[in-house]
Amino acid sequence: MFSLELSEEQRMIQDTAKSFAAEQLRPRAHECDEKGALPEDLLASAWELGLVSAVVPEELGGGGMKRSAVTGAIMLEELAWGDLALALAMVAPALFAYPILTQGTDQQKKKYLPLLLESKPAPLTAAVIEPVINFDLSELTCQAKKKGAGYLLSGKKCLVPMGSTAQSFLVYAAVDGKPGYENVGGFIVERGQKGLKIGERERNMGLAALDTVGLELAEVEVGGDAVLAGGPSCDFGKLMSYSRVALGALAIGVARAAQEYALEYAKVRVAFGEPIAHRQAISFMIADDYMEIESGRLLTWEAAFLLDAGKDAFKEAYLAKLYTDQVVIKVTDDAVQTLGGHGYIREHPVELWLRNGRGFTTFDGLATV
Amino acid sequence: MFSLELSEEQRMIQDTAKSFAAEQLRPRAHECDEKGALPEDLLASAWELGLVSAVVPEELGGGGMKRSAVTGAIMLEELAWGDLALALAMVAPALFAYPILTQGTDQQKKKYLPLLLESKPAPLTAAVIEPVINFDLSELTCQAKKKGAGYLLSGKKCLVPMGSTAQSFLVYAAVDGKPGYENVGGFIVERGQKGLKIGERERNMGLAALDTVGLELAEVEVGGDAVLAGGPSCDFGKLMSYSRVALGALAIGVARAAQEYALEYAKVRVAFGEPIAHRQAISFMIADDYMEIESGRLLTWEAAFLLDAGKDAFKEAYLAKLYTDQVVIKVTDDAVQTLGGHGYIREHPVELWLRNGRGFTTFDGLATV
Amino acid sequence: MISFEVPAGVANVSKLVHGLAMGVMRKWARWADDHEHERCEEWVNTMWSLSKGGMMGSMTGGLSRKKKEDKPKEEGEKKKEVRYQNLIMAAAVEELSWGDAGLYLAMPFMGLGGAAVAAAGTEAQREKFLKRFTTADKPVWGAMAITEPGAGSDTAAISATAELDPKTKEWILNGEKIFVTQGKSSVEDSEGFVVAWASRDRKAGRAGIKSFVVEHHTPGMKVTKVEHKLGIRASDTASIVFEDCRVPYENVLGDPEVKEGFKGAMATFDATRPMVAASAIGIGRAALERCQELYEKNGGKLRYGINPNRLTSAERDLMMMESQVRVSRLLTWKAAWMADAGIHNNLEASVSKAKTGKAITWVTNKAVELLGPVGYSKQELLEKWLRDAKINDIFEGTGQINTLVVARRIFGLGSKELR
Amino acid sequence: MISFEVPAGVANVSKLVHGLAMGVMRKWARWADDHEHERCEEWVNTMWSLSKGGMMGSMTGGLSRKKKEDKPKEEGEKKKEVRYQNLIMAAAVEELSWGDAGLYLAMPFMGLGGAAVAAAGTEAQREKFLKRFTTADKPVWGAMAITEPGAGSDTAAISATAELDPKTKEWILNGEKIFVTQGKSSVEDSEGFVVAWASRDRKAGRAGIKSFVVEHHTPGMKVTKVEHKLGIRASDTASIVFEDCRVPYENVLGDPEVKEGFKGAMATFDATRPMVAASAIGIGRAALERCQELYEKNGGKLRYGINPNRLTSAERDLMMMESQVRVSRLLTWKAAWMADAGIHNNLEASVSKAKTGKAITWVTNKAVELLGPVGYSKQELLEKWLRDAKINDIFEGTGQINTLVVARRIFGLGSKELR
């Protein structure tokens, strides 16, 4: 029944993520951003937390933990509070593995899920976003044409996380050129396959520390066994609802980081003889941000709860993402504004959060819970 | 060259309108609203100012003043500051007469324009708005079908100002059912014509003091000589640009009334030991409103200036109206908020301005300059 | 464990009250708006018969009872099942306001005055003052009188006084109260009462402020004005003047001594603010639903899932309206649930009120805007909902006051630093 | 008479500078963003040759000259033809920032420091300090140093000190300045100068604050840091420390005595704030135009004139972006025109800055949002424009500070009441 109290397990996972974020991520986020890289050791220690791999079924050697979107949302908020790039890098393998877990064939599960149990991050990722204006999940320009028992994939993708080193890509494409979520298929493409060109590391406003690449697919041939759910299409709407919940939680994490930082700054920064927190123009703005963060979190959690309860939640997850997209834009801008000139320089993290936060309206499919 | 200084003439007209608004309108606005009527004497004295009729050409016995949208905007802002219902009542005859002035045939001019010179408000008005959802000027549901030399008009109109007593109505309709501004025609319909049903006085959220009615037209037959510009269509885009400028100015007038009232209230209302103006949550909100009013006014004036310069200004007038529509909504809400409980009771005028202000998004074609 | 499952008790009340709202309230909504200062007999009588049947009591008793039941738990003690009284109340208020916010406020009911008695009164006071709401022959109202011409949000500035007559042991009240919801109904039109805030000792500031139950028709008390309002016109909003109005000693609520009485009074806001939010949500939902209905009737579709930039402007507005209603409800339910679970909810109560007041004002404005002439006309209720909704950003603490509470709490600043 | 006709002088400058912006600035924009702390030689040399040719002087001299020419007019005197120097400058700044806001700030130019000399300096000081900007062999920069680690918007809190050595008649400066635009270029990389604000008498508060011209490479002055920034990376933003830095007596600007020096210093904001707004407008227009272009290339149309609720969400956003850019320009032109016409524009200068800073931040954010992956990628300049634009809501007074100025003016309240 209605409650907003975390379960023991949720609290444990939250604590784990929170500590890791505070101790490992936050102190290194600036350096990672400036260098444009997440060091191997950081990725490895993040992976060792086992936050992504716990859901591998027991029969495949995993912990068999029940997958929970709510718990995932709680975890991702904390990680994104630490650093968004790392949080996205951590869940990149899940972008491949979780759809296999829920919709994959037995053969696909056996082949790929055990990779999550390795000590190093599994070299798996997914390709959803396309480098076009008005990119729309219901009208993918990447196409899959039937050929024999399999498909020929053609099109372009971008913002593929950890794509430079990934071995296997779950590529989403419109089957036979038909629009609509219901006609989207997931196709497993292996690095080195003929027709697959993996682009240079991308350069974006934010996420500099995260390895993202573009893909060009020129009639890449995919066998029938490499089609998610046995094909032709999969339950893409459900996959995207999980993604939206994840992105909502990540956006809230970034926003919360910014709001808390601005709040602390306002308490100590003195102007005109008093801390600027004493001015309503500052404190009301931050109070408003606090309320918007609460709002976005509850919307996201509710959508997550519905997914966990086996509901469709397509609308709820969509609305939650629309909402949190705007929350993170507002709050990170307000944080820079609160710090004034100090917010504009890269010594303080708020400008990084602003840059990262500007991507959420674009990040469809870039994370999952 | 660029200047925001009023000309002598503009200043004179502004002063006239301002005094009338302060002395005649503001003190009686509440009573008019509660009673749902504009007293005859008020209408008559407003008409006597000659603000609408000055443009009647000399050859028809008028003053032959050059029509200026800028001057009109200045005047309407002042009148609306006094009372929107009266301002709209005052310009209602212009809704009929000005299109005749600029686009009418000689015969139409001779027949109708001298009515403006009478001592009582000319019983002329226009019918633009339709009682439908998604009402769109470019897709009027009121239709004009060719019949002989004239047309048969069918459809519904609403928010026809001063319609209960008007003798002649300029009714806009889509000619032969074609969409687009370019296919809208203006048709003169006289009270009592067969097929014309003039509805009961309307009841709306605001504008209670203004007489507005709905019209039902069932194959009302209009002769060829009663078609604006000789027909079939007129320059409806231009007419609507003038209307948008007028509505922009009226919206700014209402908003300014509210902003000034809230400002004065905040200076004297004491809470927690000081005037509430000393709190940034209040004073910044009102400062912001001041800036938005300035913004809306300049956008409106620029569009008006372009019209006066003979430019199309279709886009500029449209954008100005879009902008001012939102300004008046925000500012009047803020004013009620500033007064708190006192803003919610009808003793103070802010709630009236809020109600009137909510209509601007709907008032297409309800005024002109 | 985090759960958004609606408790059965809540769902039942929602359903029950929704029927009432649909069946009785909606049909009188426009009439009541048009007939300010008149009583809607069918509504009052329906609600009175239900109150006497215990329905209102079961809905509203909870708000007051929780304080006693939710004493600090001993460590290790198995947590008691949460009883959701506040949540049930929020659900009921939402539905009533979905029906009509003015009629909701005008229903014969103990109101905030009764709630204060229930919360701060002794057993004897409860017995004496509250019994009437389930036993009287005719409808009865209760009211709360706090605001004064010179004291709105700044309740510490209250200038009404209560002097103790040592001879008769009576309180002598003097002062003027305004914006008393159902004030006239409570003290002139029924055998109800008003709870008036007054100061025993103006030098003591907040600590001197006490609340006094003043029975209907008490000599020296006079309703001097009933306001004409923007919205919620079905409800009477009265000015009440006290001139040497004598009240029995035992009618003071809580400790009559001058010491920290004020904090307790302010704490009732933690219970009432989420209810004001719930009322706003009911109105907002009514507007949203009607708007969606008309939009869809008119051939519009809501294409959830596509690139938001490709939605129509109306579609996007409708979705944002929907989100705002949902968000408002979630925040309100959080605050109510915390009260039910015995968790201090001062911050969350103000969050729910501040956010909801603003959000629903926006929602109802958008609804009118989206429907154009149809929205602006009195043929639909949309324009009325806009007017009704606005009060929720004003009474029980304006949006600004509630934001101030939120800011003070999250910054950990007092009223001297963050003013 | 009200007129929105663009004066020919303004139109000419716009056209001229637009060519420069298109031809030189745009091609280096991304490079300059990627190579923070490096000088873009082609740009600097191009602008230097133009400065020496007098172009920059003709553009910028106006800002300073207006004060002398626009002495209060005698009644009845025929009004002089307005010369539009401020408007011309605003137009130039808009175009330069349309090209690239970072490069605009980095151009060899007397900058705010030079403007202060021009506005507050004597004829001899102007001759001595400003001549170099048209005559030097190599590019020269001027800078203004106001902000300190502990004094941002609160310029009265400046703690840098200027002590007069009675023996040598030199000023001895001590203190740390931060956020000095083109600080390094002015005092280390060229034969320029910085105008530093320091207090002669900290007890005197604002009245004790004076500004001092400190020549490049003056001993005791050191650039201690060059910031890494969110945007406008082509421009250097330096920290400068003064340690017993000796400056000739005649380098003080304005009256060296302690009396009301501050108000004059603040008044320069009335001239500079509209120019900051103009810079924001240039960026916003660049983003708007590119966004419209890509939207239309992609098959989108802008259907002005239809019911706004029927527009697509992107269409409506684009129209609102367009309105915001237009509004910002109109407000800015108003403030600039008032300066040109000799009308006190303190309120309007702050209005233009406050509104524009916020409006253009929103516009550039929307542009990135509307274009999705294309907007977020560095392959387009949109993401850069977003980063560049934000500074305009911060420097020369944050949005909050400018709103405070507006509020104080319209309420007629002083800094003690409205803090």
Keywords:
heterotetramer, A: alpha+beta, Butyryl-Coa Dehydrogenase, subunit A, domain 1, Butyryl-CoA Dehydrogenase, subunit A, domain 2, seven-stranded mixed sheet, 9 strands, globular, C: 419 residues, alpha+beta, Butyryl-CoA Dehydrogenase, subunit A, domain 3, four-stranded antiparallel sheet, 13 helices
Secondary structure blueprint with pairings:
The complex is a heterotetramer, with two copies of chain A (369 residues) and two copies of chain C (419 residues).
Chain A: H1 8-35, H2 40-48, H3 69-82, H4 84-103, H5 106-112, E1 124-127, E2 143-147, E3 150-161, E4 168-175, E5 184-190, E6 196-201, E7 212-222, H6 236-268, E8 270-271, E9 274-275, H7 280-308, H8 314-339, H9 341-344, H10 350-357
Parallel strand pairs in A: 1-4, 2-4
Antiparallel strand pairs in A: 2-3, 3-7, 4-5, 6-7, 8-9
Helix pairs in contact in A: 1-3, 3-4, 3-6, 3-7, 6-7, 6-8, 6-10, 7-8, 8-10
Chain C: H1 8-34, H2 41-52, H3 55-69, H4 85-106, H5 111-120, H6 123-130, H7 132-135, E1 142-145, E2 161-165, E3 170-181, H8 183-187, E4 193-199, E5 209-215, E6 221-226, E7 237-248, E8 252-253, H9 261-297, H10 313-340, H11 346-376, H12 382-390, H13 399-411
Parallel strand pairs in C: 1-4
Antiparallel strand pairs in C: 2-3, 3-7, 4-5, 5-8, 6-7
Helix pairs in contact in C: 1-4, 3-4, 3-5, 4-9, 4-10, 5-9, 9-10, 9-11, 9-12, 10-11, 11-12, 11-13
Rg of chain C from C-alpha positions? 22 Å
Q: Indicate the CATH architecture of the largest domain in chain C.
A: Up-down Bundle
CATH superfamily of the largest domain in chain A: Butyryl-CoA Dehydrogenase, subunit A, domain 3
Shape, per Cα inertia axes of chain A = globular
Ends distance of chain A: 23 Å
Tell me the number of strands of chain A. Answer: 9
Which strand order do you get reading across the main beta sheet of chain C? 1-4-5-8
CATH architecture descriptor of the largest domain in chain A: Up-down Bundle
Largest sheet of chain A: 7 strands, mixed
CATH topology of the largest domain in chain C: Butyryl-CoA Dehydrogenase, subunit A, domain 3
Residue share in helix of chain A: 40-55%
Span between termini of chain C: 38 Å
List the total number of helices of chain C: 13
Major sheet description of chain C: 4 strands, mixed
Overall structural domain count of chain C: 3
